[in-house]
Amino acid sequence: MSISVTAKIPYGNVCDVRVTEAGKTTEVRFAADPHGGPESLWFCFRVEEEGKRLSPRSKVELTLSHSTNVLGGGRPLAFRPVLRAADGDWERLGPPAVEQLPDGRRLVSWVVDAPRRFFDVALCYPYGMAEVETLVRETGNFWRADVIGVSQQARPLVRLSNDCGKKRGRRAGLYLTARQHSGETPGSWVLDGFLRHMATLGEDAPLIWALPLTNIDGVEQGDYGKDNFPYDLNRAWGMVPMRHETLVFQRDVARWKERCRPVLGLDFHAPGGTEKDGIFAYVPDPETSPEKYNTALAWNAGIRKALTRRYAAEDFNRVARYRSRWETPDFTDYICQAVDVCGFTFETPYALAGRLVFTREDYRDAGKRIATAVMTKLRREFPSPLRGGGLG
């Protein structure tokens, strides 16, 4: 058997690769590359057959090294990467085998069939511009894609919207973001489901502007993107922005604010790599923003109910008081301060919610449920006719 490994695929990330043959099984040992940042988690790579045709009975053991060094890697049995064979679709791998080494390190592994040509492996279902384009196409171009600026590396920054709004417009408005940490693909899939549902409402939808791939450089480069230097994108939202992307986004938020009645800002993320409690929300700190905290709880009462125990963590509303490398505001802080509306974050696990193993349709269904709950509350608060200052 002859096997090689490459990260030269979309969103590629892998390092410390060692390929060892033992009979009909080849071990591919790998690690998540931090790509220059202090945190690692995201991986995405290709395993290729080289030379002669492999035996149908041949196996590959995929072994994740250094799992204790990745963010949230403390429960290794909760890792469930995805694999896509050549010309196939992404599928979840099952529970891993965990080997404790004498010095306390762990090896986390899965045994799969050897590739007939190649297969790709990733921490979770990838999501990039191809999926954004699919969303736009499959919703009948309900969503308009506009380039509102460029990233620090001159990549287009795309914003989706269902309307441009108008100066001093009174239509209820939502501003949405995802992928501030570029490896957190579950956030994109949930936002995808949210936007798909809103597209079914036509003119009854609020005015929505959404940034599906905020950290586009990190997405394309295969970065994990959490706390990456020179500045974590989600901690660069001060009144003096610390990255060019946030400068672009803040000016877009200002345009949105002028063209609607701002109601809510939502940010879609994923937590540590082995989180399995379900979807939860980071809400404003009651000690510094008691009014916004109570507003978030009011929104989340309906959202948590809509998500049900299938998706929602029991401890649903949380306050982010963990240690951070950055003292500057994030997107939700900015929305609360600069726009004076409530903003909060959804965290969706990479694989598990209790016994549920997330599929892409589960993620989208969760997004649909969040959208449904948001609309229920909006209709109560903006009951006037569409063209008279309500939703439309």
Task: Produce a short descriptive summary.
This protein is 25% helix and 28% strand. The protein is of the alpha+beta class. Helix 5 links the parallel strand 16 and strand 17.
Number of helices: 7
CATH superfamily of the largest domain: Zn peptidases
Helix and strand run: EEEEEEEEEEHEEEHEHHEEHEHEEEH
Instruction: Give the averaged pLDDT, no decimals.
Output: 94
The coarse silhouette is globular
Integer tally of domains: 2
The rounded distance between the terminal residues' Cα atoms is 62 Å
* Biggest pleated-sheet summary: 8 strands, mixed
What is the CATH architecture assignment of the largest domain?
3-Layer(aba) Sandwich
Using the CA coordinates, give the radius of gyration.
22 Å
Which structural class do the helices and strands define?
alpha+beta
- Beta-strand content bin: 25-35%
CATH topology of the largest domain: Aminopeptidase
Helix percentage:
25-40%
Describe the structure.
The strands form four sheets. The protein has an eight-stranded mixed sheet, sandwiched between helices. The protein is globular and about 70 Å long. The chain has helices at residues 129-138, 185-199, 216-221, 244-258, 290-311, 331-339, 360-381; strands spanning 3-6, 15-22, 25-31, 44-49, 59-64, 82-85, 90-92, 97-100, 106-113, 118-122, 144-150, 156-161, 172-178, 207-211, 261-269, 279-282, 312-318, 342-347, 352-353, 356-357. It has 392 residues and is an alpha+beta fold. The protein folds into two domains: 3-122, Immunoglobulin-like, CATH 2.60.40; 129-388, Zn peptidases (Aminopeptidase, 3-Layer(aba) Sandwich), CATH 3.40.630. It starts with a strand and ends in an 11-residue tail after the last helix. α2 (185-199) crosses α7.
